[in-house]
Amino acid sequence: MPMTRSRRTALVIIGLVVVPLIVLASGAMWFWWQLDPPGGSGSKVEMEIQRGWGVPEIADELESKGVIGSSLVFSVYSRMNGDTSFDAGTYELKKHMGVRNAVKALNAGPRISYSVMTVPPGLWLPEVADRVAKVPGLDRQAFLDATTNNAVRSSFEPEGVNNLEGLLWPDTYNVEAEEDEIKVLKTMARTFEKKAEALGLANANVQGYGAYDVIKIASLIEAEAKVPEDRPLIASVIYNRLAEGMPLQIDATLIYARGDAKNRSISDADKEIASPYNTYANTGLPPTPIAAVSEASLRAALAPADTDYLFYVVSDKNGKHAFAETLEGHEENIAAARAAGLL
């Protein structure tokens, strides 16, 4: 029997109403399925949230790791609940744990994790920046820029100086995932302040030289001394030459003036470099420290040996130096070093 017009109309109306309802119901079921998938969670998954990631990046990473089935559902659900910011770091999640449990796990915060960063004494700021850049998420140039643009200042940094060379403490640091370049720089500067103040550097007056100059001297000692017993002796030479108005003639300052940390040898041409760091051409101390200083070098700069030495030269293969009060004695030490193949 042919279908009547009224019956066809009724079927159309039913289709227009029922089909969307079925689609809507199916969509709702799919959405709730993604929130709490049946069957329980699977194996453990480790996931890293990078600095600066928003909900879309996190959602895509969760889906790619198999933690959730839909990045779209995660994005919608997290925004509906006001969960739009999650801390950077490493998280331990599980496969197929679903959107709801994933959001809960991310809200709980990352597993405490650190990147170990070791900064030995004697490094220049660009070399320190190289170490910083090995920490995931940290940028070398951003750190280096912050050492000279007053983003972080040290209490030992004189007015008019905007250079943290020599004012960062060399040490091994545990850098947490949420730390940025400024936080790392601030930690290193504050650690230096704390250590230096404990040594009495804040009120230092060594033969008329205050704290910042003492740090400069410590950086010269750091660059020159190779064995512990030489540090206070090299300190005495520096103070004695300053008192005599003699140029310090410290090779390490020429290398610093040249700007090539990898090449530690010097030539006669280097002694003609036009730079305030050239202690062959200029008397007095360089304008800033030239390297990160150790506690041993700071102690030597604060308490130099009581000598009349004005000269030193390497005297054995371990880097120990021979010291002299006169040029004649120094020339004898140089001849001995050459005979031993040290020069």
Question: Quick gist of this model?
Answer:
This protein has twelve helices and six strands. It has 343 residues and is mainly alpha-helical. It has three domains: 75 residues, Endolytic murein transglycosylase (Dna Ligase, domain 1); 85 residues, no CATH class; 105 residues, no CATH class.
Structure explained in plain terms:
The chain has helices spanning 5-35, 55-64, 71-80, 98-107, 125-133, 140-146, 181-198, 211-224, 231-244, 251-258, 295-302, 327-339; strands at 44-49, 89-94, 114-118, 172-176, 311-314, 321-324. It has 3 domains: 33-107, Dna Ligase, domain 1 (2-Layer Sandwich), CATH 3.30.1490.480; 114-198, no CATH class; 205-309, no CATH class. The protein is built from 12 helices and 6 strands. It has a two-stranded antiparallel ribbon. A two-stranded antiparallel sheet has the order 3-4.
Identify low-pLDDT runs.
Answer: none
> Count the strands?
6
Number of domains: 3
Structural class: mainly alpha
Mean pLDDT: 88
- Physical arrangement of strands within the biggest beta sheet: 1-2
Task: Please report the distance between the alpha carbons of the first and last residues.
Answer: 115 Å
C-alpha geometry = elongated
